[in-house]
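Researcher: We're teaching a course module on how sequence relates to structure. For the next exercise, students receive a sequence and then see the predicted structure as tokens, so they can try to spot secondary structure elements on their own. Here is the exercise chain.
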Amino acid sequence: MSLPFGAAPVDPAPVWTAECLLPAVGASVATARSLVRRELGRWGLDALVDDCCLIVSELASNVVRHGGNVFTLRLGSNGCWVYGEVFDQGDGVPSQRDADPESVGGRGLLIVDELADDWGVAASGRGGKTVWFLAGTGSRSLLPVVPHQSRIAVC
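Model: And here is the predicted structure for the students to work with:
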């Protein structure tokens, strides 16, 4: 399944992209993290790997807990920033909340808000929603981005 990036405007458009359709089960959270680690490493964005892995873990965990049966993780980069999105067919719209100090959950979007440069939720016209994030927008690219050498990875 390939959908155009578009929940959040990114300019210039991503040169590298990766996409993966996963079942909404606990093991898919680790698979999503592995995809982030592998692709960002290939793209030379090692400095963003840990934050993006944690962001994607939180978003994928939300889908497993509250979303539909499957979800799509998509990543894109221009060599500076990483744009990511998680799409699922679930009806609910995630929102930040204050977690009880004794609670073991409820802090995921607070973590996303702290680590991402920007993030948001976009409803889909076909049902479901996309939760997107941007990371690394304040950093300068260390890579020469050559559009004709674009790489698309699909798992």
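Model: If you want an answer key for the exercise: The two ends are 11 Å apart (CA to CA). The CA atoms of residues 37 and 49 lie 6 Å apart.
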